[in-house]
Amino acid sequence: MSDTVETDMKDPDDTAPKATAPEAGQPVQPGRRAFLRKGGLSAFGAMLGMTIPFERGLPAGVIPVALAQDTGQDLMSGKSGLVVLSDRPLNAETPAHLLDDDITPYDRMFIRLNGLVPQTALDGDATDWKLVIDGEVDKPLELTLDDLKSQFENVTSALVVECGGNGRAFYQPGTTGNQWTLGGVGCPEWTGVRLADVLKAAGVKPSAVYTGHYGNDVHLSGEEKDTISRGVPIEKAMENDGIIAWAMNGEPIPALHGFPLRLVIPGYPGSVSQKYLTRIWVRDKVHDGEKMGGASYRMPAHPVAPGAEVPESDMEILTEMPVKSLITFPETGTSVASGQQAEVRGHAWTGNGDVAAVHTSIDFGQTWQEATLDAPPNRFAWQRWRAMVTLPAAGYYEVWARATDKNGVSQPPVSPGWNPRGYANNIQHRIALIAT
Ligand SMILES: Nc1nc2c(c(=O)[nH]1)N[C@H]1C(S)=C(S)[C@@H](COP(=O)(O)O)O[C@H]1N2
Ligand SMILES: [Mo]
Fold first, then answer.
1. DSSP 64
2. Shortest-distance ligand to the CA of residue 111
3. How far, CA to CA in Å, does 189 sit from each of 104, 113, 241, 251, 413?
4. How does DSSP assign 349-374, residue by residue?
5. DSSP strand pairing (189-194 vs 210-215)
């Protein structure tokens, strides 16, 4: 692990307006800033829990080696079979055949971090945790974990979290960022309270337009900057599906996935599901936090030629994720007996709620057979599909899977509309099968 800042992993939107300073008259962000300033320590000092006497001599861009995050804890222990795409920040995806579970277990859940895991999460310390709801609300709230658990109905749902950049690796020409192939997605079971219930308790004013989310994870530079602060239109936030979660698969949310509290707002890119959640700022305009501007999580409003430069004014925020499916069994390259039925299965999901159908092809898309498709346990959980295929003679085959949403829109056989940062690629998943 290097002790210098890796600039190549940063979003190339450094020219985008940064909205880290509260607007005049707005309450000061209570999250990371307050945490970092505790005891009058510098940002690095607070992370280390002690002063750094020679800190002024630390060259710009150099991170204290003790913060390289490979000291005390092996963050990847307990994860099995994931492919690490970058280690600082830590990003890792799951091979498709390891995503076969209906409920994604911890060891198979992909990891997407824009910054460093905060010390509170590494320590598993939630004692002083507070969630602030403020901005365009009648009654700003400051809630402890116990307040959340006791004052609102507790709910549990299986919800897909998919990185907006999942599938980026398949775009031609390539685009910058983590080269997610298929496995920047998972569907754990989340327990918490409905985001809408908490917002209703705060009393959302008619002036509310958007949410702005904050967490206490630490910027790669060690500076007091937000790693990521995204939001959703207030109408989306007021739907019943989004939850403020404190548990994943029945356990406190693990450090990598947002301990002690995170948002899970399904259907939109994973980036709106803020981990280490400290604040939801209800805005009177579209949120302009970190990674809301430039090319971050934004797509050309109209189709563009692959590789085109798109002016910022032609970009719009990526909201609903497209319909998609994965083949999770068997693993690509598996041998099967020719002339005999073999089961192929996987999951399908879409940002608009329900998948209407899944089809598979064994002849490179010439003919398609409809798979059986299970109803989801709840809205925005992925849906199990199964197909029986018979490969007629020995040789090389591919199984292609194609999900269709309720509007009749289905996955393309090639990458869909190219965009500068390679988002929302729902190209059909293909696996190889060898008939013997
Ligand atoms: N605080 C915080 N929340 C965050 C992020 C982050 O870097 N910091 N990354 C976001 C992105 S881009 C994704 S895709 C999801 C990934 O969630 P996971 O790591 O639990 O799989 O978390 C989102 N929430
Ligand atoms: Mo993401």
1. P
2. 1
3. 8, 20, 13, 10, 31
4. E-TTS-EEEEEEESSTTSS-EEPEEP
5. unpaired
Task: Mean pLDDT check: name the lowest of 69-78, 174-183, 210-219.
Answer: 69-78
Q: Would you say 86 and 241 are in contact if contact means Cβ atoms under 8 Å apart?
A: no
pTM listed for this prediction: 0.86
Domain boundaries, the chain: 324-435
Question: CA neighbours within 13 Å on the CB side: how many for 404?
Answer: 14
- Residue 241's pLDDT is 98
Q: How far is the CA of 165 from the centre of ligand 2 (A)?
A: 6
Nearest atom in ligand 1 to the alpha carbon of residue 166 is 14
Q: Which residues line ligand 1 (CB under 6 A)?
A: 109-115, 161, 163, 215, 217, 227-228, 257, 270-271, 273-276
Task: Write the DSSP symbol of residue 202.
Answer: H
Q: Half-sphere exposure of 375 toward its Cβ, with a 13 Å CA cutoff?
A: 2
The helix or strand, by DSSP H or E, that contains position 32, with its residue range, turns out to be helix 32-37
Mutate to test the pocket of ligand 1, among 228, 246, 291 (most ligand atoms within 8 A of CB): 228
Tens-place pLDDT, residues 287-302: 999 999 999 999 999 9
Report the distance separating Cα 406 and Cα 67, nearest Å.
48
| Residue range 201-249, pLDDT digits in tens | 999 999 999 999 999 999 998 888 999 999 999 999 999 999 999 999 9
For residues 166-183, give the mean pLDDT. 97
Please report, as a single letter, which amino acid is at residue 264: V
Tokens (6 digits) for 112:
């997407």
Of the CATH numbers 3.40.50.12780, 1.10.760.10, 3.40.50.2000, 2.60.40.650, which one belongs to the domain with range 324-435?
Answer: 2.60.40.650
Q: What phi, psi does 37 have (nearest 5°)?
A: -80, -5
> Quick one: which of 141, 154, 160, 151 has its CA closest to 278?
141
- Report residue 245 CA to chain centroid gap: 14
Ligand 1 center to residue 256 CA distance, Å?
9
Find the mean pLDDT for residues 81-106: 96
Q: How far is CA 319 from CA 10, 239, 272, 348, in A?
A: 22, 14, 9, 18
**C-alpha dist (Å) from residue 145 to 166, 252, 265, 392:** 32, 11, 19, 58
180 CA distance to ligand 2 middle (Å): 10
- CA 187 to the chain's CA centroid: 11
